[in-house]
Amino acid sequence: MAKPTVILVGADKGGVGKTTVARTLLDYFSAHQTPTRAFDTESPRGTLKRFHPDITEVVDVTEVADQMKIFDTLGSADARVTVIDVRAGLLSPTLQALSDIGFLESAKKGQITFAVFHILGPSIASLNEIAETARFVGDANYFLVKNKINDTTFFEWDPKTYNTYFKQIKGASEISIPKLNEMACEQVEVASQPFVSFIANKDAQGQTANYSFVLRGYVRHWLGNVWGEYDRVKLIDLIAPKVEAVRQQAAG
Amino acid sequence: MSFRNSVTVVASPRSRVGKTLLARLLIDFHTQERREVAAFDLNSGGGTLTQYVPSRTTASEIADINGQMALFDRLIAEDGITKVVDLGHESFEGFFALASKIGFVEEARRRQIAPAILFVITPDATSVESYRRLRSMFPQAVLAPLHNEIFGIAQHRDKYELAGHRTLLTHLPLLAPGVRRAIDTPPFSFTDAALASSRIPLEVQVELQRWLRRVYREFRELDLRILLADLQSSILGS
After folding, report:
1. A182 contact residues in B (CB cutoff 8 A)
2. Which domain holds residue B56?
3. Stretch A68-88: mean pLDDT, rounded?
4. Which residue of B has its CA nearest to A199?
5. Interface of B with A (CB under 8 A)
6. What is the pLDDT of residue A161?
7. B158: closest CA among B112, B205, B123, B196?
8. Does A217 contact B at CB distance below 8 Å?
9. Is it the case that residue A131 has pLDDT exceeding 80?
10. CATH number, domain at B189?
11. Å from B178 to nearest chain A CA?
12. Which of A8, A81, A105, A226 could form a disulfide with A36 if both were Cys (CB 3.0 to 4.6 A apart)?
């Protein structure tokens, strides 16, 4: 039985595009025919659920009942990958909670594949966030995500300082999400559709919609670049390691 | 595959090579062919398409997203209207970069709209390089080189032949200066020029009509190539 994967998508500050990144991940796994489910911790209304209603559940990750809903079902769920969109400011507390319930231990023991997508904002305060999460992450697959949501220069701090923090986390990878034109962003938000549906000009009922061809082109181009980053860090290999596939093949 | 209608972009990275005149002629040609035509003027400055054919032309720009949407969403619209774009040299790079980024040619073909680039050839290296780049960027579009005979014999046509194939060259025949003066005062409609009440002297009208017939012979051949999507016919002997 293949290992389940849990991906935490979090940030310690709001407005850095965390949910956008979570959405690109859901579309990425969908494109790779990998069954995925998502938990949206922006309870009660949720932010991610609006775009992927069929696979997303809104939860309160600090409630034991909801923790059980997520983690006790990991082994039995149809979904191979569980994406948890962690509310801004709750990344470190969530990691603490995961440590408390023994989840991080399971990950360490190799029973679960665990990854953290840490979405960083352009300010220097992000450095402290990295230090905060570093103490939990351990053997998790840690991705530092620079999300270029606006035109501000990213990471104006001294590269030496940045590297000091970066290297605290073993095996951390960096991902750069390029900027998507504001009007294209806005239109996708208004459409409340997954990126791939917007690009395909489909509405919620699967009917042909009337989205701007130009904006769809911008989104397609952007998403292609984002997925290129996921390809580059071999995200799919993480979910379904080739070693395991080969072993299963050999076994029967 | 055959197409219902076409989008033709008249282009050159150089200025003052006859793009606007070609756009005007294309508008009139399609009108003669009983097609509804919409033209898009991507030029700044005076003497532009919008002034010559105001009833059919929309002044456009692609500097910002709104202008881009207003232009490309319309070019791709399945409204059965034939589209002509007068691409000013300043917008040459930006237009094709954007078209490539958003997948304009593929989308047009998907909607049975034939995408075509009418490229005015000149001997300079910039133009030759631009032409080659367009060929590799848009293999699915009809890239038709055009020689404006005002520049003399097309001695440089060899530079525009690709991969050893002889490319079919469209010609814009030479127009006598006296006739040229008559047509270069905006607004101007070639159709109206044929009217008896026209302010153009009769002998100039006769010469103009003779010239237009030659131009439209060239355009008709090009039009068939574009609409029949027969890219092979660009290569003689195939």
Report:
1. 65
2. 5-234
3. 85
4. B102
5. 65-66, 68-69, 72-73, 76, 101-104, 107
6. 66
7. B123
8. yes
9. no
10. 3.40.50.300
11. 44
12. A81
- Residues of chain A neighbouring B73 (CB-CB closer than 8 A): 212-214
Q: What is the average per-residue pLDDT within A193-201?
A: 95
Contact yes or no for B69 and A216 at CB 8 A: no
Identify the CATH number of the domain in which residue A112 sits: 3.40.50.300
Contact A217 B66 (CB under 8 A): no
Omega cis (within 30) before A93: no
In a domain, A171, yes or no: yes
Q: What DSSP assignment string belongs to chain B?
A: ---SEEEEEEE-SSSSSSHHHHHHHHHHHHHHTT--EEEEEE--SSS-HHHHSTTTEEE---SSHHHHHHHHHHHT--SS-EEEEEE-GGGHHHHHHHHHHHTHHHHHHHTTEEEEEEEE--SSHHHHHHHHHHHHH-TTSEEEEEEEGGG-S-GGGGGG--TT--B--EEE----HHHHHHH-SSS--HHHHTSTT-SS-HHHHHHHHHHHHHHHHHHHHHHHHHHTT-GGGGBTT-
pLDDT (mean) for B136-143 = 94
**Which is it for the CA torsion A184, A188, A194, A199, positive or negative?**
negative
Contacts of A215 in chain B (CB under 8 A): 65, 69
Nearest chain A CA: its distance from B101 CA (Å): 6
What DSSP state is assigned to residue A207? -
Span A27-76, pLDDT tens digits? 999 999 999 999 998 877 788 999 999 999 998 877 888 888 888 888 77
| Token pair recorded at residue B53 | 């054919």
Give domain status of residue A222, yes or no: no
Do residues A9 and A84 make contact, with C-beta atoms less than 8 angstroms apart? yes
Interface membership of A183 toward B (CB under 8 Å): yes
| Structural domain count of chain B | 1
Structural domain contains residue A198: no
Report the domain count for chain A: 1
Q: Which residue shows structure tokens 């806005």?
A: A186
